[in-house]
Specification:
heterodimer, A: alpha/beta, Rossmann fold, Alpha-Beta Plaits, 2 domains, six-stranded mixed sheet, 11 helices, about 35% helix, about 30% strand, elongated, B: mainly alpha, 12 helices, about 0% strand, globular
Amino acid sequence: MSAPIIALDGLLVRYGKFTALHGVDAIFQGGSLGLLGPNGAGKSTMLRSILGLVRPTAGTAQVLGVDARKSGTELRRRIGYMPERDAFIGGFSAVRGLAHLAEICGFPKDDAMLRAHDVLHFVGLGEERYREVSTFSTGMRQRYKLAAALVHDPEVLFLDEPTNGLDPQSRARMLGLIERITKDHGLHLVLASHLLHDVERLCQEVWVMEGGKMRLTGSISDLTAAARGARRVTIANDQGSAFHAAAEAAGFACAIDGDGRSFVVHHEDRVVGPDEIFQLAQSHQMVITSIRPAARSLEDAFLEVLEGE
Amino acid sequence: MAFRAAEYERYTGPRSKRPAWWPLLTATLQRGWSSRWVRRITWISLIQGFGLCVLAYVLNDVVPTWRELTERVGEMAGAEDEIKLDGRVYLWLLNMFVYPVLLPLALLFGYDLISKDLETNATEAYFARPITPASYLLGRTLAFVGFLLAATLGPMLMVWLADYATSEAEHFQEIAKVPLGITLALSFIAVVLALFVQAVSVLTKSGTWTNLIFVVIFLFGSAMASILYNMTDNLDMLSISLLHNVYVVCAYIMDELPQRQDYADPGVVFTVMSGIGIVSLMVLMRGLRRRSMLG
């Protein structure tokens, strides 16, 4: 089995008396990972540790099998980082700025220029490549940053809020690009975002952080799968309160979900079968319009983790 | 294969072994050269140097008796010193090249080398790559020092070479120590100045403020030095003037410090200049290390 893409082992980072990361343990085997957490959760510190820019007080951060503390500079040659804020080299055209960044990563001059042209075409900025980045719109700047993260041919891509400030069309375009990069080019992705829909669409795994601690790690499909055997039931008009009362009387826990016609029905000890729901409805002469396994959204899971602590 | 091609897998081309600061140095030199005024200052200095080369050739080869002629004119005017094209003349030439170049180059080129990167957040793009704050600073500083030396040391060495090549063999003894002296003096001044300007720009995070502060320190420092000297009668007070220090450093390293006592002790001057350099370096490293903490 190959080395994990990221392996954190008791990663502890202190800034003076303030502890930013409390001995975090986590493993990312590869694919795409969403990094979630409220502001101040420790995501940025973790990112800095992974890039080898912060020296951990204790523990280790291994990336691509390399200790980030010992070989941070070398590691950054293999990682593409797209910062949240605008970051470009003033006075340079887009293509010259990218070629310059590729040269810093060890590309020969000619290859760096070719590569810069290539990735700018890839992100849809081919026509604008001779313009100064300072004249770009927000959407173009975001795509330029993505190109900058790709220009030196990294193995892992760290994207920090890549869809920030984008209109719906630009956002869809950006998400499509990221999807292509991960699926067609096989790059591993670490996505830090507050937009859970983006994470849900692009990532297979999530790490949820809060207060410098890792609250949850797992695959998104597991997190959003049927919640403890519950069923989401929708019934006909005007029968909502009656169904709620009947379900509670039958020993089910019944939570109203949405407009008063939908309920999440579950039992503490067992899986709720559809037959039981139909029988309950039949005995009270109610009409069920739909019944399906109750799934959580990533947002539900995220909030559950944060509120549960 | 192009990244956008569906079959693309990985870049398999060669990787350069150059240090990470090298592309930064060349890009900074290109950035400086793209500035019309930086080009003008550099060209004007080099053309002046070329003009002096022609003058050295004319004096040494076309009018080889110029020394006797000038001595006779000097005697008629009552001058006591013998006319010599020695280290003292080179010190005078050095000052002629240094003073008109230092301040303009700092104001036109050095002021935004780092502050522009801070404004556009380019430091974040740099430090997410295999470059350390020290390498970044090295690339930027070497480029600035390169321009300062091109506009000062370049023409001076041209003049020296022309003088050496066109004069008689025994003249070499008079000017033998000049190249090493001017190289050391100008390199020391250029490095200190480059670090100082960049440190101010890291503190202000603005090119405009850097320029204002630099002008105030450069010019106001000289005025303050004179005032404090007159008030305290302590010559070392002159060492707060950068212009004065530049002169003393050049004169001392070229071993041409005049006998008159109207300058600060060279030891004090070197301490002040080294102190400025070291403190600037500390400010720069601290500022850049902070910026290397991404996010």
